[in-house]
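User: Can you help me understand a structure? I only have the sequence.
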Amino acid sequence: MVPRPEPIRLIEASFQIHPATALLGPRQCGKTTLARLIAEQELSTFFDLENPVDIQRLSAPLQALKDLSGLVIIDEVQRKPELFEVLRVLIDRPDRSARFLLLGSASPYLVRGVSESLAGRIGFVDLAGFQLWEVGRLHRDRLWIRGGLPRAFLADSESDSMQWREGFIRTFLERDIPQLGITIAAETLRRFWTMVAHYHGQVWNAAEFARALGTAENTARRYLDILAGAYMVRVLPPWFENLKKRQVKAPKIYIRDSGLFHSLLQISTLADLQGHPKIGASWEGFALEHVIHVLHTRDAYFWATHAGAELDLMVTIGGKRHGFEFKFTDAPGRKRSMHIAIEDLGLEHLWVVYPGDQKYTLDENISVIPLEEIAKFAETGMTI
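Assistant: Let's start by predicting it. Here is the structure, written out as tokens:
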């Protein structure tokens, strides 16, 4: 078992503030395993809403939950959204003796009710697949090609991992999406998802997707929102401000798990990836996800101008802006675009993340840094 102390720490911190915590992330990313580890430390009751017995136990939810104490865990809570109103009543009782850990595979924006019913009462912790600091730096390439979903990463062989991911994609489209009440043909959504993989790391163009699918632009946007809400796609918003430059105002799109990205493009091994034209985009998405998770930030943007200046990622930490560029090259150098980004955005520092193993300085406020060094921020609790 791969230890995951950081998400456990975040859950405990959330419970210091809120009586309920939602642990959210894609299916099969390890939420249930993590919850069971937490449950071993105290009195707990576990409900799995994929288990028919537990569904029956919660057929009268108020009666089933009102007398419980300790930690109450409800897995796949998005399958029973009417629970949120009941939980609000229980949480607001003055004699409440239970805490609630809710596990979900869909964003609160996709599951109607959680945001409204539990506003001010619930904290949110995001869980992705394994991260580099969890599996160790020696396994970086394995994590990159297979992705972080535990069963894909831990599979006995590349072919077993690829087969598991293909099964995951099929199950997600044919079972998980319909369970959310979304009626879209599995083949249509798979086609759209594969198109997103081909546009991985590029600016979203609704008109182009709509033409390819033979649908309206708002339909294409709905498909994107569904995949983003289920933690399959990251929609990275643009940063724009009152500069005397025309700035890009459409988001960039990424497949969040690198293993699923490779499966959708039928890339099964590292050798296949090394000869593929999408290798640079693959590295960008892989490294970007790790940086965002290390920094625990939702305040993440990209920036670009129509004149060609761009920045892959901008985050604000302690009131200061930091920029990140992701380069799949042996020795990244200084680019004019970097200085434009520093000047126009007022960056404190710009970090160029690459797959090498040496850290070096390009300028007073530009550093080249291996992805493994970013992982150290999580291992040591350091900040940039």
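Now, to help you interpret it: Residues 5-126 form a domain with the Rossmann fold fold (CATH 3.40.50.300). The two ends are 30 Å apart (CA to CA). Let me know which part you'd like to focus on.
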